[in-house]
Amino acid sequence: MQTSTLSRAANALRAHLNQEEGKLSDADIQIGHPARFSSTGNGQGEALNIFIYHVEHSGYPAHTGTSEPYFVKLHCLLTPMTEGDTAENIGPGDMELRLLGHAMEILHKDPVVNVTDDDGSVLAQLQTVPTHMSVEETNRIFSTQFETSYRVSVAYELALVPVFVEPPRNDSPRVAAIEVGTSPEMVDRNRSPGDPDAAFINGRITGFEVDTSRPDWEPHIVFVDPAGQLTYALRLQQSPGTPLPPARVLGFGTGTATLQVQRRIGEGPWQQIPDRGSMALNSAPIDPDTDYSSAPTTDLPLDGDDAILDQPGQAWVWVERVWQREDRPPVTIRSNAIAITITEEQP
Description:
single chain, mainly beta, STM4215-like, Immunoglobulin-like, 19 strands
């Protein structure tokens, strides 16, 4: 049976709680009924149980059709469970409070849980919200768990989880640039860049500087075109038998960042290209009036076995850096995205 976003959401929460070494990494974080641990326990060890006890519809948006995803809220119970004293001679009651406290601390510091697909693409970002559950309501849930006794627990809501009728498709082209054409005539509107009778104005990059004094600063990247000018989008025509030169990428910030590339070949789906390495970032301000022809750039090949795109299609390029926060989970910060579009040469 294929996995669903409900299963992915529960497993994403488990991974989220298990990301801080020294907190819950040694505990068995399991998904299911609390009675499952009690019936299979061996008298040793500890676990944190995630029990999804209710799925709540969030309503059907009026602007979506039956083929579009709808969204639900997952209500879960976090229950620590221990059997016997630990190796450090910590009693079960004390250990359960430690496990539950660490889980609450993690969700308070970082309440957003990313749900990803098999390729690592983010399907949804879930907000974990503490919810009130009375002792009577909690005891009612445990009364259904056979001989499992009442345990101190906390309730959370995970929202919003998308439920897809079909696997999400990601195969349409993306807007790389908006161009404005001018012409002396009100006919023949389908002109192309380079037409001597029409001038096409692309968006101009204004000068600015990445403020690296902020701990959450975002890197910024641009292309350097053959004329040494900065641009966010390259549109190239491929001639048969003539290889395209590499795309030159210039990054701004400090230190290094990891290159990320997605591409779409022809009419196919978008796919992630792994292992593109890292690139150095330039701490100087961005000056659109400077000739960057000789600037040190990172080249992305458009020909050969290592090409990110060597035939008609699109490539989306960005960089990511990791913000290492003190006593908190690290955060991946993503730059702006820049685009390459390759078309076939028109006869």
